[in-house]
Amino acid sequence: MLAIHNIGELVVVPPGPIGGRSMRDLTRIALAAMLLDGERIAWFGPEPQLDAPTGGESIDACGGCVIPGLIDCHTHTVFAGTREAEFVQRIEGKSYAQIAEAGGGIRVTVDAVRSATCDRLVELALPRLQRMLHNGVTTVEIKSGYGLTVEDELKMLEAVRRLKELQPVELVATYLAAHTTPREFEGRPDDYLDMVLNESLLARIRDEKLAEFCDVFCERTAFDIEQSRRVLTTAKRFGLTPRLHADQITQMSATLLAGEVGAISADHLETIDDAGIAALKAAGCVAVLLPGCSFFLSVKQAPARRLLEADLPVAVATDFNPGSAMVESLPLVMHIACTQMRLTPAEALVAATANAAAAVNRHDRLGAIKVGMQADLAILDVPNHDQWMYEPGRNCVRTVLKRGRVVASND
Amino acid sequence: MLAIHNIGELVVVPPGPIGGRSMRDLTRIALAAMLLDGERIAWFGPEPQLDAPTGGESIDACGGCVIPGLIDCHTHTVFAGTREAEFVQRIEGKSYAQIAEAGGGIRVTVDAVRSATCDRLVELALPRLQRMLHNGVTTVEIKSGYGLTVEDELKMLEAVRRLKELQPVELVATYLAAHTTPREFEGRPDDYLDMVLNESLLARIRDEKLAEFCDVFCERTAFDIEQSRRVLTTAKRFGLTPRLHADQITQMSATLLAGEVGAISADHLETIDDAGIAALKAAGCVAVLLPGCSFFLSVKQAPARRLLEADLPVAVATDFNPGSAMVESLPLVMHIACTQMRLTPAEALVAATANAAAAVNRHDRLGAIKVGMQADLAILDVPNHDQWMYEPGRNCVRTVLKRGRVVASND
User: Fold this and answer.
1) Which fold has domain B2-68+368-409?
2) pTM for the complete prediction?
């Protein structure tokens, strides 16, 4: 048994998915304690009620707040190369087309990933995951989608598999070959999909457990509804759970498709309308918002409050990627959700824990403070979680536990 | 002599003030080296031209970018208490008046500061300054203004004086008794000003070198133009250089006053209009923008690009304070300036170095890479400064030098 005592505020996040209207109703126990039995939460409550076995290990939370470990449920953390030139061009007012003409855009990253070995991709991702962990993040979803050949997509998924063994952050792999059509298939997206939806390839991804989810960028400039349907239904037959990039730039009823294919999440939603919200509600999937992306690109945020009022389970993730969101800090993105989308700190916390766990199908085990749940925890350097969200730009995480063991400390 | 070699990019920021139209024209030397002679820059140039004395000390920049140490020219870093409850209320849609009625607002901080000893104020500010230093900040301006009695304002300035001796960040003190009228003088702002502009008090501040600048919050809810004029001209007679909070919420021609009293800077400027820009240009003072404040409050940003086009020397600072900008990271605020105000990374860098130095009257010594200037430097973990601005939420600073000595390292 490991005891955590002297907790200033224990935020009792219940298991997800949690509908938007209930997301701010969190029980907070002041002066709390916890007992961990191996990987699991065995007990929690007010400290005076703690009946700790003598001689056990213990951690002094020093009056800090304790929350579930954060879950970043939408990222592109495996990549090579950086695109700061494009960042500057965008500030200077260059359009997407001008940037692409000047050699920018996603294809820069595709070229860099294709040129990199799997070892190099692993080497580049390791310090990113290490920094995420030090920000309190204990689970990260990572998508392929910068290889865009059979070999390079498999290389990205293989990099994620190796990363699982090299560091403590739990990784969730998503197959996103349908990210964009590569230049060698320009004008022939269906031929490209023939290649990346090849049955023996999908069987291999399933059999080698290289991915749990399949994603598609459903967008005017990427794949249309019909193509997206094909991607998700084909992959589903091979055991990959559907999820999709929906309504980011163009509103094209992708949320209807989400319901139709049984997607676990619909992500982005910057341009979602009332019909889309109704479709999402009917679909029963998690609405994953990416406020760091809109912030980074200086474009409109998704209508978060309308989604919450519709009682949808809302999650928040970084979308960490080198083109549209070079933001690896989930706490910073949660702060952006607070000030730019008007989520309360409680809503932002549920969005990055319980509901993010639901978006990666781990809500039976992760993202909540409940007896029997996995002891993935962050101990903060501030006495309450409101104060954490109120201080962007400062890492308020002191200690991080994964499966009941201390895996990072910022002392 | 201390050599810094293997610099991926040396950003040659010239001494300030630099007019807006020239702020993005920075010389960058690839594969550079520097020589420091004690506290000063003795030489810099392409590494192959380095003629380092044998046996001297050296620092390997590991291909990282080198920039002048950052200067945060507008902060309220000395304070007690936090106001996260108010942060949450604001997100929930409460108005300023409702928050004040619920016991929030600046008076919460005033009460906390009045209750704190000078020792306690020092103890609270030390870790903040330490974290700022680790973000590459080597000089910080700090205002009084939460005491609002003679004794408590002196206590705040005394705290700044003690902090100068306890840590390496260079501090610049500003007397801001005219921050707001305290409740015991409600309805009698002129009586309050009689007290804090008392001649023997101002003489003491001058003689004991407790402050270099005098600031006033010129705003409908604080002090009007006539009162602000009185504050700044009176203080100026005692050697305190004027600066002012202008055009934050209400456009009331404070920039005209800036010119009239010879202010070194006019700060905030969220509501500045064309006449104000012309007045500021005529006044010859630095325009200090505080994008972290508008971001934190979710309100409109100052029209930065119009100020730059008018060729005004623009600075950027955090406004770090517990009410309207709990943001201590100047690099994060510079990123916000890039994405939310459309400053290029080069403009943001000049704004937080050369022009910030001009705003605190240290441009003869600080904020630039030039032979003879003080060796306040930050060595980054990224090869160019564009990449630094492109990665918010990650501390890219590796090593910080103040007066030619290493004072912080993030290895």
Assistant:
1) Urease, subunit C; domain 1 (2.30.40)
2) 0.97
